[in-house]
Design brief:
This protein is of the alpha+beta class. Helix content is 26%, strand content 50%. The protein has a single domain, classed as Nuclear Transport Factor 2, Chain: A, CATH 3.10.450.50. The protein is built from 3 helices and 7 strands; from the N terminus they run ααββαβββββ.
Amino acid sequence: MPNQRDNQGPADHIRGLEHERLRALVQNEAAVADALHSENYQLITPGGAAISKADYLGGIASGELRYTRFEPASDIAVRVYEDAAAVRYQVRIDIDFAGGHDSGLFWHTDIYEKRDGRWQAVWSQATRIRT
């Protein structure tokens, strides 16, 4: 059966990948999450820490980081430029981590790159929205 995303434009395809990425992180689906993040992926947290792919996905796999909610709270805006794309949206996050819990509404920005025919997240940044 052909992939449902085969008939979509690049922005819709990336939007679908972003939904899939969030689901994989919440459900701790290591193989899916690994495939959707480039080897040099880096997350900038709301507190300003830079976290590598190994530390981020390793923390999720070990249970040190556990998302209980990571879902869009707005439309996912996507801008595609050849082999790169910018993704921006508001997201609701609930996360448990070593020694604490955080939840709230955040702006989330991702940069995707197309490598060897597939799109992967290379950078992410979350910024807390003060309400």
